[in-house]
Design a protein that fits this description.
By secondary structure, the protein is mainly alpha-helical. It has one domain. 65% of the residues lie in helices and 8% in strands. The protein is built from 12 helices and 8 strands. A two-stranded parallel ribbon has the order 1-2. Strands 3-6 form a two-stranded antiparallel ribbon. Strands 4-5 form a two-stranded antiparallel sheet. Strand 4 and strand 5 form a beta hairpin. The longest helix is centred in the C-terminal third of the chain and has 37 residues. The chain is globular. The N and C termini lie far apart (58 Å). Keywords: Membrane, Transmembrane, Transmembrane helix. This is Enediyne biosynthesis protein.
C-alpha cells in the first residue's frame, strides 16, 4: 500500500530574520522583567503571562488550521523544541508589546482581545509579495489601534512607567541603552536604518511645520523624541521587518509617510496619532501591494492573449539546387 505523506511547509523566515526575531524577543522579555521589578510598569504582574499564553494559543491554532487546509505540515513541526520556539518568536514579541503598551484598567478580557486581534490579523490581512502571501498590518500596532478605536475608555500605557521608579541618572541611561541596542539590531539584521532616518527627519520636520502653521509649541513637539516610548516605537515597532519595505527608497517613503500622517492627525487634534498613523500607512501599503498584484496579473493575461492571437507561419515545400548525385534536395521554407 502506498503511503501518503504531508508536504512540509516552507520555512517561516530566513536565518537572518530568525536571528533578529530571537534578539527582539530577548530584548522585550528583559525589558518586561526590569519593567515590573525596577522601572514601574503599571499593569498587573500576571498579565504578561496571560498575554503570552493567549498569543501562543492563537498562533499555534491558526497555524494548524492553515496547515490542514493547505495540505502541509505545520511550520513548527519537524525541528523539535527549537522549531516550536522559533515559530513562536513573533507571537511572543506581539503579546508582550500589546500588554506593555496598553492600559485597560482592570479589564483583563480587553487585553486578551487585543492580543488575539494582533496575532490573528497576520492570518487575515495579507497581500501577495514575491509570490507568497504576507501580512501587511503591524501586528502589535494593529491590536493596540483596534482597542483604542473600540473602547474609548482604554488608553496607551503612561509613558512615565518606563522610568517611573528610577533616578535622574537612569532617566538618561535607559533610553541610551535601548537606543544603542535597537540601532545595532536594525543595522546588522533587519536593515531598516533608512526607514529610521527618514522617520526621524520627517518627524522633526512635521513638528516644525505644525509649529509654524498651527502656532503650537515646536519644542513640545520635538521633546517627544527624547522619551523612552518614542525610542521603543522607533527601534522595535515601526521597523517591523515583516510589515515594512526592504528597499531603501521604499523604506524612506514608509518612514516619512508615518511621520506625515502623524503630523496631520495631530493637526486635527486626534490623540494616539503615532499608532493610528502607523496603521494607516500599513493599510495603504497593503492596498498598494494588492494593486501591484492585480496589475501584474492583468499584464500576464494580456500577454497570453497576444501570444494566442499571433498567426503561425505556414510552411511550404521548395526545391533548391540539386546535390552532387543529381537528386533534388527538398527543404521547408516559411512563407512570409
Amino acid at each position: 500500500m502506498a503511503e501518503t505523506t504531508t508536504a512540509a511547509g516552507p520555512p517561516r523566515h530566513d536565518a537572518k530574520i530568525t536571528t533578529a526575531l530571537r534578539r527582539f524577543a530577548i530584548s522585550i522579555s528583559v525589558l518586561n522583567i526590569f519593567g515590573y521589578t525596577v522601572l514601574g510598569f503599571e499593569q498587573p504582574w500576571l498579565w504578561p503571562f496571560i498575554a503570552l499564553a493567549t498569543g501562543y494559543a492563537v498562533e499555534l491554532a491558526l497555524e494548524l488550521i492553515s496547515a490542514r487546509q493547505e495540505g502541509r505540515a505545520p511550520r513548527f513541526a519537524g525541528n523539535g523544541a527549537k522549531g516550536v520556539i522559533e515559530f513562536l518568536y513573533p507571537a511572543h514579541i506581539t503579546s508582550l508589546a500589546v500588554n506593555m503598551l496598553t492600559y485597560v484598567n482592570d479589564q483583563l478580557w480587553v487585553m486578551i482581545f487585543a492580543v488575539t486581534v494582533a496575532v490573528g490579523a497576520k492570518w487575515v490581512l495579507r497581500a501577495p509579495v514575491r509570490g507568497r502571501m504576507r501580512h501587511y498590518m503591524n501586528p502589535s500596532n494593529f491590536g493596540i489601534t483596534i482597542v483604542l478605536l473600540l473602547f474609548p475608555w482604554a488608553s496607551i500605557a503612561p509613558p512615565y512607567h518606563f522610568t517611573e521608579h528610577v533616578g535622574t541618572f537612569w532617566d538618561w541611561v535607559i533610553p541610551l541603552i535601548i537606543l544603542v541596542a535597537g540601532s545595532m539590531l536594525n543595522g546588522m539584521l533587519t536593515g531598516r536604518l533608512w526607514l529610521i532616518m527618514a522617520w526621524l527627519v520627517a518627524f522633526a520636520l512635521q513638528a516644525v511645520v505644525r509649529g509654524v502653521l498651527l502656532d503650537v509649541s515646536i519644542p513640545s513637539g520635538l521633546s517627544m523624541m527624547t522619551g523612552v516610548a518614542f525610542i521603543l516605537f522607533t527601534n522595535y515597532m515601526v521597523t517591523d521587518p515583516g510589515t515594512s519595505p526592504s528597499k531603501p527608497a521604499a523604506q524612506m517613503a514608509f518612514g516619512a509617510g508615518v511621520a506625515v500622517v502623524y503630523g496631520a492627525l495631530m493637526g486635527m487634534s486626534i490623540p494616539y496619532g503615532i499608532f493610528f498613523a502607523t496603521a494607516i500607512v500599513c493599510l495603504i501599503r497593503g492596498g498598494f501591494l494588492w494593486a501591484l498584484h492585480f496589475v501584474d496579473k492583468n499584464r500576464a493575461l494580456v500577454l497570453a492573449e497576444q501570444r494566442k492571437a499571433e498567426p503561425t507561419a505556414p510552411v511550404e515545400e521548395s526545391t533548391v539546387e540539386p546535390v552532387r548525385n543529381g537528386a533534388p534536395k527538398h527543404s521547408a521554407v516559411a512563407r512570409t
